[in-house]
Amino acid sequence: PNPPPLRLALALLLALLLQLPRPTTPANWAQLAGKRAQNIAKPYIPVEDHVYLDPATASRPMWSARWGHASAVFNSSNPRNDMTVQENSARLLVLTSRLLVMGGDDQVLDNFMVKDEFAKTGKPDGWKEGDPHGFGAEQHDGVRGGPTGKGGFLNDVWYSLPATGSEKGWDVVNDEVASKVDQSEVIQSQMRWLQSNPGRINPATWPMDMAGFFTLQGQPIKAGNPLTYDDWIMCQEPFDSLQQGNRSLCDLDNILPWADKVCDLEDERTKEALKNFYYKANTAWPLECSPQALWKLDNMWSPRRGHKAVVAKGHVLQGSNENDKLFVMGGRAREYTFIEEDRMVGGVIGPRVRTEIDRITTREENILKNDIWMSEDGLGVNWKLVNPGCRAPQIDILLNKEKWNGYEAAYENIGQAKEKCETNNDCYGVAECGSLAVGSPDKVCFCPMWSARENHAVSVQHVYQREASLDENGNEDGNGALLHSEDYIYVVGGFVNIRKSFCGSHSCGTNGYRFYMDDAWVSNDGGLTWIQFKPAFDETRTKFRGRGAHAMALISQPDLGLTAADDYPPGQTKEQDQLWVFGGEGGSDETGETVFLNDVWRVDLPLLPCCVKEGNCDTPHRLTADDVASGCLPKINEWKNATLLPPYQGADWEGRAGHTVVVEPPGGINQNIQRVVLSGGHGEGGKLFDDVWTWGFQDPDEEDLYYTCPEGDIYKCKWFKDYEPGQWYRVSRKVDVDIYEIGDAEDGAEVTVDNLESDVYYGPGHGKPGDTDQSYMPTTPLQYYFHAGSDISMLGVKIFLPEPDPRVPMEAQDPIRYPGLTDQDIEEFRSLGINTIQDVIDADVVQIIRLRGYDYPGGTEALNVGDKVCDIQALARAIDAKCTVRHIQQYDLEHMLPINVDPIFDSNAPIDPDQNWQYRGGGEGTLNDANVWTGSNAHGKVYGQEAEEECDEACMIENWDGCYSMEVENADGEMEPATDIDVPGVGPVPIPVVIRDPTSDLQEVKCRQNPGARTYAVAELFEQEVVVMGGKRNHQGDYMQDVWVRDDFLPTASIKVKPTKLTSESNFMFATDRRACIFEYKIVDAEEKIDVVPWTLTTRSKGANVLDLLDFNWPWGTGPGFGEYYFYLRAIDPAGNVGYQYQEENVYLWTWVDPLPLPWIIGGACAGLFVVILAYLEYRRRKKKKAMERYAIKRMRRKFKGQAKGGDDKKADWRTLASEEGDKDKKKKK
């Protein structure tokens, strides 16, 4: 059935909102995956030391810690500029984005292993395209497997899918679980990683004899002879013209000359034969199966680092639907290669000692590559070679660095002697043969594309043409029919090797020297052919210096007044694509100098496909040099230095390489402000950076923006550094509800969507407190977030929350901050070299007592901070403890267990496999016969540490820090508080009477949370969020296995349900404008101005019930009870961002009335009723007793009345007679 119109409209509206990019300005980061490195949320923690038997049962797999890897986003949800808004919305409804990590260098043993049989067969029964296989196998020769057993270069492929649900990427556990786990596990990451390709390398030797067939080096193919990587991929299409009769080996459907049948991989006998070959020694390869044809199915790029990956399409005509493809390009690879003759025994010129043809002539080499591989499945499962690249350098390298005039020749020679050629077939790959040296009779191989290199930069531009389409005002709206679309792939710079050795009349050698390239190339056919639009070695003309490990991004700018309106073709929106280059490592091959750059360069790119200008878009048009000459492609003089301020000496950030750059495209949700996020990298002296910088400029048509670039030059906008005043952030000004969803209502049912349009502020802060026009916003609340390097002036600041006025609604107000240290105090701290929190923590006793006013006799002028320094030091240590990653204890006294002792538990083991696998383990575990918990959640002593040694009195005095108090033994042998400590050279120094408890101040401390210093990481814009992955923490190792996402949105909390004033109602319920938040609330006595309830953690579903807080031990009534209170609320998101301002929505002033003590009233009433009943029953008993006595007396009178007859009536008393009668009865009983 057709959906209701309202539902359809709301779905489209939601899709439109989702396609708008989210801003990525400076802020805290949330950790999505990796070993825990923050205290707010639980990331996706990968398994360690786990034996994978089957990918279906593997719990929490993830790529190994690595650097130099490549990343890409397939089916990116970012809007494409070659699509209309409607087309982008429709695309969002059907695409599935994938975040990919490929290859890299992991160096160390990772212990991710599988059974050999599964590792070698690779794909289990029932395997489907896209399913992981061959999980993490040790990568032996010729085996489909994962990371190498000892670490090193990798070619595995991993992917992660976007999480679904209202919390999008995060989950808040239910209240029952939340009550059992650490508060840092209430919010949990929903990221998952799967391996689509474990990586493959070629066998070391040929498996069978192939009479009459030869390797690419011209050697006969014999079983046991060395096999190179090039021979392994010889059946890829680019080698068709080089096979020299070997093509019959590339098709499984051919019957080989020595075989009597076609290779049938479905035949059980063939399967068994292949299996036996892999797993049984001295078993022959099945003769009917060509190894090359079988290998063609497994061919892929060799293990490498420093490579690049992009997603792009090729040539697209109107009406076609070519899918995106995944490309991997270049890098430094590990391959089996043929040993060239010039490396054999003997001279370079000759005569040479040649090896026998059956001797080993291969070895595993570390080489630079410029090959290009393509995967069409979007997962990197299957790969095709698009371009094998070249071994020879490109022309400008040969002409500038390898031109030689030897002693034997009267003319110049180019390149190496082995690269002489007659035709193109004499050259490897796509290299061409030609005469380059003037006067030389020799031709030489040269590369018509970029030379083999690593750490280059790659970007993709979507170039398109549309029919003209005008809006109601006569302006181009970009909604015309798409006529033509192409993807231009750009490559700029990188590290290459140049050969500077001179042997005879030619260059020689293999490894060469590192050289920094400044060239630029473009391809529009998926990397098959390349055009150089910026030559190398032109620094003197453009000042653009050669570089590698730089960052590059394509920025599609709105009309900035730089292009005349008439220059925009019909159907084209007023946007200008630009290629931007940021920093990098440069240097000189002559002096060995290395320079880390902080410049920024840009160049304008074509507005339309070059085929439009030439009028031949009906047929595939590959770019040529004519497109540079015609002005379609940028010329050399069009490269501009965009480093913000003249004389263009560099950006605000330090020169660096190995950094990452991500561009947030302009959109409605960020007020069309183009933003660039730059993070990490390394610089001079091996310094690694942990800073993050942002930069960008806005659409000049946008109005009412509080921040603009300098008038007249939009490229002079300022870079902003993390956690400094002036940074940009986002925050909602009003909040109604925290989640908005499209429900599955029946036809005709009403569907409501709340808060689709919110008043979101985006900027650096402006105005002044108290502005009545709502123009004030605080300046970067994140500047107050703490870390070990925070300035000393931040310590001791007192925070007071604003109080609401009951007469008027409360507008948004900042917390009130009062400095705890005077300017003189701070100056005295700095005079002793104490500038940061870490300096305070590390201060020695002499520094502390000098700040307290005690110094060596005759010392410098006394300082006068006083005992306050001890309060500051206690606070600094408390902040350090709060912001340091907290280990989660799983059982009592765990922290005292020595690290070399493994715990053994009884049958009631305290380790819960579902909840307590913070650092390793998880899944199913078992308790073996020795009562040792084993399996995937074996404890393994992650948290244990050496027990601290006891410190006696002498030890404590010797290690006194200048502040803390201690007890000493007096003359009577009793312990009493010490009053002073004798400091050598100073004398007795009094111990402070009291050191202020930092707990109250600590509640207002927010910690910085970010990926930390790293270089050679990768970063992507995934689901409109900046994601950073992997890298290395230092140059000696310490590789990273983690994923972080940037979050610049300060969460805003609101009270959805609150008690009515002057009642005893006690329930609060909360909401937030951010996903997956937890809450903190605080209650303050409005009259006494003291905290009744400190900041207390809770969840949205749990809310807060203040009955037990305000009336402790109810109904005993020991709490503060009746009174007027302030209720403050704030939200905390997974990145550790905390709501900053307080307003009517998250502050509540109300008078709370003690609830009637109903238990006491009911109990008292029941007790009173019980007493009345008892009294009544007692009354009845006594009354009845009296009646019985009267009845008994009457009987006794009648009974003994007769006895009195005949006697003396006066002497006969009935009571006496009754008593005598009683005595007789007793005697009878005896």
Mind explaining what this structure looks like?
This protein is an alpha+beta fold and 1230 residues long. It is 15% helix and 24% strand. The protein has 20 helices and 59 strands. The strands form 20 sheets. Strands 12, 13, 15, 16 and 17 form a 5-stranded antiparallel β-sheet that branches. Strands 14, 23, 24, 27 and 28 form a 5-stranded antiparallel β-sheet that branches. A hairpin with a 5-residue loop joins strand 41 (925-927) and strand 42 (933-935). The longest helix is centred in the last third of the chain and has 44 residues, at 1158-1201. The chain is elongated and about 170 Å long. The termini are far apart. The N terminus is likely disordered.
Estimate the strand proportion.
15-25%
Assembly of the depicted chains: single chain
Q: How does the helix and strand content classify structurally? A: alpha+beta
Main sheet characteristics:
5 strands, antiparallel
C-alpha end-to-end distance: 104 Å
Overall mean pLDDT: 76
Question: How would you describe this structure in keywords?
Answer:
disordered N terminus; alpha+beta; single chain; five-stranded antiparallel beta sheet; elongated; 1230 residues; 20 helices
SSE topology sketch:
Blueprint: H1 5-19, E1 29-33, E2 51-52, E3 70-74, H2 85-94, E4 98-105, E5 113-114, H3 116-121, E6 153-160, E7 170-172, H4 175-178, E8 187-189, E9 194-197, E10 210-214, E11 220-221, H5 229-232, H6 268-279, H7 291-296, E12 304-305, E13 308-312, E14 315-317, E15 325-338, E16 362-375, E17 384-387, H8 395-401, E18 403-404, E19 413-414, E20 420-421, E21 432-434, E22 443-446, E23 457-466, E24 482-498, E25 501-503, E26 506-508, E27 513-523, E28 531-534, H9 539-542, E29 551-558, E30 575-587, E31 594-604, H10 610-614, H11 626-629, E32 640-641, E33 660-664, E34 675-679, E35 692-695, E36 720-721, E37 729-732, E38 760-763, E39 798-800, E40 816-818, H12 823-831, H13 837-842, H14 845-851, H15 868-883, E41 925-927, E42 933-935, H16 953-958, E43 967-969, E44 975-977, E45 980-983, E46 987-990, H17 999-1002, E47 1018-1022, E48 1025-1029, E49 1032-1034, E50 1037-1039, E51 1043-1046, E52 1049-1050, E53 1053-1057, E54 1067-1072, E55 1078-1085, E56 1091-1098, E57 1104-1105, H18 1107-1110, E58 1123-1132, E59 1147-1152, H19 1158-1201, H20 1214-1229
Parallel strand pairs: 2-5, 37-52
Antiparallel strand pairs: 1-51, 3-4, 4-6, 6-9, 7-8, 10-11, 12-15, 13-15, 14-24, 15-16, 16-17, 18-19, 20-22, 21-22, 23-24, 24-27, 25-26, 27-28, 29-30, 30-31, 31-32, 33-34, 34-35, 35-36, 37-38, 39-40, 41-42, 43-44, 45-46, 47-48, 48-51, 49-50, 53-54, 54-57, 55-56, 55-58, 58-59
Helix pairs in contact: 1-2, 19-20
